Amino acid sequence: MRTSRASKKADDLTLGSILSDNLKDELFPAHLVLVPQLNEVYELELAYYEAKILSDEEIFRNGAYFASVDGKPTRHFLICQGEPLKLAEHSSSRLKSFFKTNQFKTGYGTHGLFPYRGKFHPQMIKGLINVMGLKPGMTILDPMMGSGTVPLEATLMGINSIGIDSSPFCEFMARAKIEGLRVPLKPVKEAIDHFDSTFKHLSSKVDRMERSLPDKQASLFDRKPQDSRGRPISPEILRQPEVDDYLLLAFLDAKGYAERSNRKSFPDQFKAILERYYFVAEKIQNVMNGFQDQLGDARLFTGDARSMDLPGGSIDGIIFSPPYSFAIDYLKNDEQHLKFMGVDIDRLRDSMIGLRGRNLKEKYEGYLQDMTQVLSECSKVLRAGAICSIVVGTNNNQLSTILQVEPEEVTGIHETLIETGGKHGLRLVRKIERQITGMANTMRSEFIVMLQKG
Predict the structure, then answer these.
(1) Predicted TM-score (pTM) of this structure
(2) 438 to each of 94, 163, 328, 446, how far by Cα in Å?
(3) 203 domain-assigned
(4) Which of 169, 205, 362, 440 has the fewest Cβ atoms within 10 Å of its own Cβ atom?
(5) Exposure string for 305-340, b = 16+ CB within 10 A, e = fewer
(6) 3-class secondary structure per residue, 301-313
(7) Is the pLDDT of residue 95 over 80?
(8) Mean pLDDT across the stretch 171-194?
(9) CA 425 to CA 375: how far, in whole Å?
(10) Same domain, 309 and 394
């Protein structure tokens, strides 16, 4: 049937009206402006939930996906402004592009310090903390904290946190990054100004610790350091214990870089990284000026997620990402640092989740048994009505080889965890798929699984 000219004109007007609508205007009130670079569906979902759950004041203080509220820049926007890490001049264009493209997602604050495999995007964690209903003064748990993204982000948000990891180095790394939010800047600057003495002293300390001498817990500046001309550096400045971990993490960071690349000598690498650590601490502390007293408290431990020594019902929310230990060697990159800390690598490896068994199939079966224990513990420590969020992906091709089935027949790890959680009083309330980009493997998506304790 032929459409009349008048009807066609009306249809054109309707089409034009529809196309002139802006999805963001439909979803968000005009006084809330989204951050740039918000370009994935899961981010839009989390932003939508933030707008529904948080007050304007809460969005200003802790929102993850908004640049301003009534024209006033949010804290997240201010924290992310400018260069995040002061990248070295020789950094690859790919690395520079990554941090520019992900300016509001990762690398801000002290999150970007020290390379670690499988890091969370801190912006996503901030959004999750918000939509899970956690408020300043409440307590969140990450029973497998890795590099410490959850406790660090919680600290910035005024939320108390507990972080647990089986690796002592992860505890040390997370603690140092959190200390960077408050570390006195003057002694860090002094360490740069008297770099030669700082490098010699840290080299000597690390050498002594690697030889397992009994001063492992001594202050970094247990001797009076001197500059290159033999003049003493003020010990009352450099002996502050809160500075120790921050400087040592920078030193170990440089040590790792120097061993992976011959682009710069170890001393030159350390100086560049020490300057980066100072830059990052100075930047975040300038942004936080006036609300340092609003930071949350973080308690970090080396421990086992399968047996957590925490009171029942004491936790207001949980976020974690289970390791893929049966397929990925998480200790390889940290082996040198763990040895430096006097850790028995083989013993630690045997105690990690998913590493029991003679072959991959047995290890995977052990992994599922371990995760059952972890979810049981999470349910025990979580208060009623609170949410446990698990960020997990599945490599179907790899699992199909392990289980000897076709990839399309593989039951995803997220599906298994949802079923297991249900058996421990954790019911599924939301599942969000997130695409993984830039990874040199076949896992292209992961799921944010939100389980609520009944």
Answers:
(1) 0.88
(2) 11, 28, 17, 13
(3) yes
(4) 440
(5) bbebebeeeebbbbbbbbbbbbbeebbeebeebbeb
(6) EECCCCCCCCCCC
(7) no
(8) 93
(9) 10
(10) yes
